[in-house]
Amino acid sequence: MYIILSFFFLMIRRPPRSTLSSSSAASDVYKRQGINAEYGSGSSAMGCGASTSPRDDAPSNRSIMILFGPPGAGKGSHAPKLVEAYKTPQLSTGDMLRAAVAAGSEVGKQAKGVMEAGGLVSDEIVVGIIKDRIQEKDCARGFILDGFPRTMGQARLLDALLKETGEKVTTVLALEVPDEELTVRICGRWVHKESGRSYHVKFKQPKSLVAAGDGAVPSVANMLDDETSEALMQRKDDTEEALKSRLEGYHTQTVPLLEYYGPQGVVVKVDGDKMPDLVWAEIATALKL
After folding, report:
1. Which of these, 56, 76, 192, 201, has the minimum number of CB atoms within 10 Å of its CB?
2. Helix 93-103 vs helix 123-133: angle between axes, to the nearest 10 degrees?
3. Active-site position among 81, 150, 168, 197
4. Which of the residues 87, 156, 235, 244 is marked catalytic?
5. Considering 31, 197, 246, 274, which one is annotated as catalytic?
6. Is position 246 annotated as part of the catalytic site?
7. 274 is catalytic
8. 75 classed as catalytic
9. Read out DSSP for 211-222?
10. pLDDT of 90-136, one tens digit each?
11. Is 197 part of the annotated catalytic residue set?
12. Run of H or E residues at 267
């Protein structure tokens, strides 16, 4: 009787044959489980609040997209549609950093210390924040990185992180817009400070500018919020001088990433110099959405 019962319990405890089809498959399974254990508990679905446990399975078939493009290319307009299409979250480094600091995670504490000292958060800390964030349940299908990586060093760190779980970047969606058009788009933006409502001297004029007549030069006197009639303002980054500096950094540090990811066959280039609906149509066609 003892022998029979022992055999019975051994059969119950034995893993399904499919997971042990080969020694390499078993090794991959256990390796991924070990990596998950090292991650520890993550933060909530939006990167703050109560902690949650990491997912039990470390997927190797998630959709991992990098949303790529210069400032003003339209990433903010199309990202929500990509989120809806892929059912995956859009992850911006700024949002993740703030959430990690607020949640008081270990890597968040490191980032907070650096910022309080007036320093720049290192790439290693940022990757640590991403490492925690992508273990959360809303990333089960994958995630969309917006604003990272921006340099070759960051790209290599990201690849090393993904390699730990047998993953890699699956799509780099690059929105391409000429610098001249970017200047028109960005330097024409005006915002209402209190509400965040955005206007444009060409594409979305406030009623006050329309009333000023054709040829009116935009100013604080005729650029007023439609709802409150309060004066609009331009952000410091939305000036031509500031944009020139940002674009120089983009072309010298970020554009080379297309050559880095190109040989992997994951780069999808889209002409962003069109009306938003036409750009989205091209994105949907290119990604087979």
Report:
1. 56
2. 80
3. 150
4. 235
5. 246
6. yes
7. no
8. yes
9. HT-TTPPP-TTT
10. 999 888 989 999 989 888 899 899 888 888 889 999 999 999 999 99
11. no
12. strand 267-271
